[in-house]
Design goal:
alpha/beta, Rossmann fold, five-stranded parallel sheet, about 45% helix, about 20% strand
Length: about 130
């Protein structure tokens, strides 16, 4: 069973994400800020991280930097960044900083589910 970490400081958005993914057969953990996400990453292995760009304590980019420098991690999870930064330049920067994919906010729950299904099927093929 795939394991997903959802890191977003907005409770309503985290609930929307988790509710949207409930029909997929996945384990989901939640973090309310970047530091909590990092703490969970040191305790668990994830196949996918759905990561908000702007969070307190550590931003999504700072979380990615931490993941990049984690020696203990057996396999790097796919990082799906959620961001209100929707300009092409911003999106290129997000990918350059280490995100594997992104979805611009606001987003459709159906688009999120389709994206996550695609990512998880790619992971399972590896």
């Amino acid at each position: 069973m795939a394991r997903i970490l959802v890191a977003d400081d907005e409770l309503v958005l985290r609930m929307l994400i988790v509710d949207s993914l409930e029909d997929l057969e996945v384990d989901i953990d939640e973090a309310q800020d970047g530091q909590e996400a990092v703490d969970l990453l040191y305790q668990n292995e994830y196949d996918l991280i759905i990561l908000d760009y702007m969070m307190p304590r550590l931003t999504g980019i700072e979380v990615i930097d931490t993941i990049t420098n984690m020696d203990e991690m057996a396999q790097r999870p796919h990082i799906l960044m959620l961001t209100a930064k929707s300009q092409q330049r911003d999106q290129e920067e997000i990918i350059a900083k280490g995100a594997d994919s992104f979805i611009a906010k606001p987003f459709s729950p159906l688009v999120l589910v389709e994206k996550v299904e695609g990512i998880l099927s790619e992971i399972l093929l590896k």
